[in-house]
Give the backbone structure.
Amino acid sequence: MVEPLIFEYHASGGRSFTVKAPEASDLPKQFLRKSKPALPAVSELQVVRHYTRLSQLNFSIDTHFYPLGSCTMKYNPKACNSLAMLPELLGRHPLAPDQFSQGTLECLYELQEMLQQATGMSGVSLTPMAGAQGELAGVAMIQAYHKTRNDHERNEIIVPDAAHGTNPATATMCGCKVVEIPTRADGDLDIDALKAAVGPKTAGIMLTNPSTLGVFERQIEEIASIVHAAGGLLYYDGANLNAILGRTSPGAMGFDVVHLNLHKTFSTPHGGGGPGSGAVGVGERLRPYLPIPLVIKTASGYSWAAEKDCPDSIGRLSAFMGNVGVLLRAYIYMRMLGGEGMRRVSEYAVLNANYIMVCLREAGFTIAFSERRASHEFIISVKKITRETGISAMDFAKALLDYGIHAPTTYFPLLVPECLLIEPTETESIQELDGFIEAMIAIRDKAYSDPEALKAAPLTMPVRRLDDVRAAKHPNLVWQPPDEQAI
Amino acid sequence: MSEIPEDLKYTEDHEWLRVEEDGLITVGITDHAQGALGELVFVELPEEGQVFNKGDACAVVESVKAASDVYCPLGGLITDVNSNLADEPELVNTNPHEGGWLFRIAPESEDVLETLMDTIAYEEYLSGLED
Amino acid sequence: MPFIPHTSGDLSAMLKRIGAETLDDLFDEIPANLTMQAIPGAPEGMSESEISSLMHERAGTDGRPVCFMGAGAYDHFVPAAVWQLTTRGEFYSAYTPYQAEASQGTLQVIYEYQTMMASLTGLDISNASLYDGATAFAEACLMAVRANRKSTSRKILVPRTVHPYYREVAFNIIRGQNIELVDLPMLDGVTDVAALAEHAGQDFAAVVIQQPNFFGSLEQVDALTNWAHAEAALVIAVANPLALSVLEPPGEWGEAGADVACGEGQPLGVPMSSGGPFYGYMVCRKDIVRQMPGRIVGRTVDVDGKPGFTLTLQAREQHIRRSRATSNICTNQGLMVTASTIYMALLGNEGLRRVALASHENTRQLIEGLCAIHGITRAFTSPVFHEAVLLLDRPVAPVLDALAATGILGGVDLTEFYPELGNALLVCATENRTPKHIEQYVAAMTAVFTTEEVRQHG
């Protein structure tokens, strides 16, 4: 810890209060708190310095390259932030009447339209607050569809073994049974296993395409027809939409429902772990079930459609209207790019990924699906290096930090041992890519010449490797004043 | 190479069972299983008096990077749990077959025991997994 | 090309290295019949100055009415430092802190946040936040069913005084898991304590208490908590965290305190922003932390023994437990939590207390002013925090329309949520409302109630 906790700052008299305290309160005593919360009592300057210094301990896109597979860490344009934070937009109450909402509603309506076009779907709801909630909405809509048709036996969701952890977790949360099917050695789905898995209990299948293995599922049309023929529906996990934006669409591939991660493809900020936004799109047959509220356009302007207008909806998933502030940022981004700019996103994202893949392959790295074209990401396995030197994917990840590069995703997908999933995004220049390639080669060489040095990495960060076991075994999750602190 | 004591029976889920003199059965996870999980940070045990069917998830062993369910290898009533693991989950790592036991169960029937692996069979099973 | 740095020279050099002729070649694994040449109907791109004009114009259309609406989103003042710091690129554009060594800033902020929330609620452990108040409530219901080992029930008692949208969201999220939310009736705007008797001995996993409740009224939290615990049910508190700077914290309710507390973090430095992004907070007793959903940050040491922070107890989460995780949630609302932490650090106890009491006082004055108008009365006698329900002698909607015409958002019409209350209007005046605003509102309302037209219209 290089910066003390805010609680450890000396109490200050120079406080900034936003209001005067009223002289008296008529709140009955029985409802009042007797103890005081342990909040800091510090000056504005102390607060500003403390949190500025803390911010400087972070990697971020604004300061570092993040080749983080399945996360699409692209540049977050500044205009998206400043324009989404105009005072009228920030000050709008979620239940404000339509006459004070036409500006916001028009943006949201157009965003629905643009997402619908980009995904090839026939309806979009913007309310889910993150990808995982979009998944929940998607599976709930699939369930509602079957239920409406009195098809009550369908409670199985098929997921490939390479799927994101949220897919099976979502299916369970919806009360479905998870059926896992294997992937073939070439990275495509095992069609025979799929044929064996589908049946009268199949509610649907959840797929990411390109898959989490960084390759495009070439049999997608056959998969769609197998699942549809069995009476199931197809769910598209939009985590990897950046790879196909403007080139093909989930609708064209035969998907019935899709969630998008606006914080990936449409460049809204990751914010150190959120907020995200997980808009969902659906084909015609799932339209009635979209989560509410939706924005509609009528003769008198834009307005919300909710319970009354959408009686078959799976309902609300947030107290109000999802993460509108995030939606506005995505809207601004999409308007700046336009149709052509969006198509360019996938072109250059895929170009960058294939470039790094080819360079690393030439440098002798093991590419997981070497015969395949990379999508916007690809996997290398350092298993051979681990066996020969003891340097693992984790060591590579930590060593990259010392080169000023954020680690790629490690140990996911679980199918490939000692793997690194690498996604550069379209916003990185060839100079950054070459820097990464050089760093990877340098680390690999060091694995053979001085492995102990790599095991000690990172050395240039505010802290070195942390003791995770201690953190989990003796959880210290809140600060206690010194006299109460156990350790 | 993991240790596989000869007085125990083994399941495909890497649990071991010991038939005690009083007829109760002690259950733990094998040396191989603890090695694969890494240092344990938490063990969630059943409560005494709970009844499980064979195959029910009845405990969880957790390391920093993984969490595994322990499935009840045979149906019965939990008579005793290893309360030492609350403070020292690492006993499962350091002494999986003795101090790191998880729970004791009064079995509904001992038929299941016949179907379990002995040391040689488990050893073969493990070497099969490595291929 | 917006945001893409490649020159045409870069492009051809890279394609050459890859062994491709054109960018199209890179998509050769997509079956040709699935490809498209352009996104149908997509608009043309705009320059930054064009989009800037457009957004200013749209924002201007929304305008800035004077807000007396609450119902889960509150118009509090946010000091400039909060969002200037929060939108620093190092916070704004950082990833989830999985690489702890490169994320100590975000991790320490969350650890400070967890400490502040635990202290504010009087409970032991906080997570790093969930999506919003309503989803935090849904997750708390799921958690209670998992955590209550004394109960085999999948039923939860939920008073009608809990925010209607929270109840709806919880129902939508947990319905797949066979959990039943049982209505508890209300009396005079608070949970009817006497009505609990008929549920005695019925085995509930948990009882929910919202404080202040949807109507702004203060619940008899001690009696409700004690009843629940006597019935071996857990207590889920849904509380406005700002109010907890003056109100008894959930951890001190009744004899033993609530077991889980959750709610909407928005009042602590997050703008209303049409309802999101907000964040849901969740705190609990130490012994049930492993049933808590969402990310949690812990303090530990590095290999040199130097203190540092890392995500911990991750084995509960979806990326490890997959189909057996405590929830499918990945996100915490990191940026909103950063803002809230800075807000709480700036204001401290005294600052929060002042905001809470000033909001209470403004609401008191507003109610006094409005209830002096013939045709407006208080719906309930129970004490309130910073919201209250008024009964009008005429339909609410046309009255709100008339107020809106003068630039005032007069409150939330409860007619559809609670038809049994009649012409009920929920009003709120935060510390951000000046005496002049309140005068304005009372004057406008007086005008509405003395205009014959409106009465006929209703």
The domain at 79-337 of chain A is CATH 3.40.640.10 (Aspartate Aminotransferase; domain 2).
